[in-house]
Amino acid sequence: MENAASQQKTSYDHPDAIDIIRDIVLETGRSKEALIAVLKNVADRFGYISNVAVQEISRQTSISAAEIFSVATFYRMLPTTQRGRHVIEFCESLPCHVVGGRELYRALLDQLGVQPGETSPDGRFTLLTTSCLGVCEVGPVLSIDDNIHGNLTAESLPDILARYE
Ligand code: FES
After folding, report:
1. Which of 5, 33, 124, 133 sits between 20 and 30 A of 165, alpha carbons compared?
2. DSSP state letter for 101
3. If you measure from the C-alpha of residue 62 to the centroid of ligand 1, how many angstroms do you get, rounded to a whole number?
4. Is there an atom of ligand 1 within 6 Å of 139 CB?
5. How far apart are CA 163 and CA 1, in angstroms?
6. Ligand 1 atom closest to Cα of 132?
């Protein structure tokens, strides 16, 4: 269930960034039906969807930048701001909350020094909250990237976080 290796992202400052975006559109499709997949692929490649990406996708698809931006901001899986190297999603649903999630959440905020939606100053973690991750039996739970960590306590948190550079 665990893979701490993060995929290397391409910077929007890369000299070929526009060509890469163009290729993603060509490979994924120019239709409105393909837009979410295009945005997902761009976010996977660059880490988030920037204004530059929105403008280029608009040029390639003839979908307005406003419409692309509204789609991108509607879906949680499509980040429109730069995120940390790892994304933590903390389960704030009741079953986790009542088995120690509340205390764990306070400890997490303390250890990261951030509020939900923020990225730690070292760029390591972005903290998001989420509803049930589907593994309530091992609550309290959080995921880091695609890895689920359960049965967490404030004491076990530092060891978990240390696995992600
Ligand atoms: S309520 Fe937290 S995983 Fe289900």
Report:
1. 133
2. I
3. 41
4. yes
5. 14
6. 4
The domain limits of the chain are 17-74, 86-162
The CATH code that applies to domain 86-162 is 3.40.30.10
**pTM of the predicted model over 0.85:** no
Cβ pair 151, 100 in contact under 8 A:
no
- Determine if ligand 1 sits within 6 Å of the CB of residue 38: no
How far apart are the CA of 150 and the centre of ligand 1, in A?
Answer: 10
CA of 73 relative to ligand 1 center, distance in Å: 25
* Tokens found for residue 145: 């990237």
The answer to whether the CB of 10 is under 6 A from ligand 1 is no
Whether the CA torsion 142, 148, 151, 153 is positive or negative: it is negative
Structure tokens at 9: 């992202």
Q: What is the pLDDT along the chain (165 residues), one digit of tens a residue?
A: 444 344 578 999 999 999 999 999 999 999 999 999 999 999 999 989 999 999 999 999 999 999 999 999 888 778 888 888 899 999 999 999 999 999 999 999 999 999 888 889 888 999 999 999 999 999 999 999 989 999 999 999 999 999 998
